[in-house]
Design brief:
The protein is of the alpha/beta class and 130 residues long. The chain has helices at residues 16-27, 79-88, and strands spanning 9-13, 30-34, 37-42, 45-51, 72-75, 92-101, 104-111, 115-122. The strands form 2 sheets. The protein has a 4-stranded mixed β-sheet, covered by helices on one side. Strands 5-8-7-6 form a 4-stranded mixed β-sheet.
């Protein structure tokens, strides 16, 4: 059987530098500079940024989903502390903290480039499996 492993997620942004700076400031991402480009690493996740100079933002209607990748998620141990950090970073809060299901809470933020990120906290002791 062929085994597929995670390699990267490709992001597009009208301002790759601003997007990289936001991820570094708000999500503690490591900026990885390569000749002619700027990329990111969050834990073991590689995020490559393609610069789309002159691109315009066409956001969907709030609450409306669109085709393609909707968002990606990261996990933290203390969501309340992470949310306070995001507020201090002046991150755009799309959806405040809410209980998703037993043992799982989350919130959504948006980065430059219209990239939606879900911040999750998973508490195994509270999760139910049926």
């Amino acid at each position: 059987m062929i085994e597929f492993k995670w390699d990267h997620l490709q992001l597009c942004s009208a301002n790759a530098e601003a997007t990289a700076a936001w991820f570094a400031r708000c999500l503690n991402a490591e900026i990885v500079r390569r000749p002619g480009r700027v990329d990111l690493r969050i834990g073991s996740i590689n995020l490559f940024i393609t610069s789309l100079a002159g691109a315009h933002l066409a956001r969907p209607v709030p609450g409306e989903r669109r085709e393609g990748i909707d968002h990606f998620g990261v996990v933290v141990v203390d969501l309340d502390a992470a949310f306070e950090h995001l507020l201090r970073c002046e991150a755009e809060i799309v959806e405040p903290i809410k209980q998703i299901r037993p043992g799982v809470r989350g919130c959504f933020v948006r980065s430059p480039g219209d990239i939606l990120v879900e911040i999750l906290e998973r508490r195994a002791a509270e999760m139910t499996f049926t």
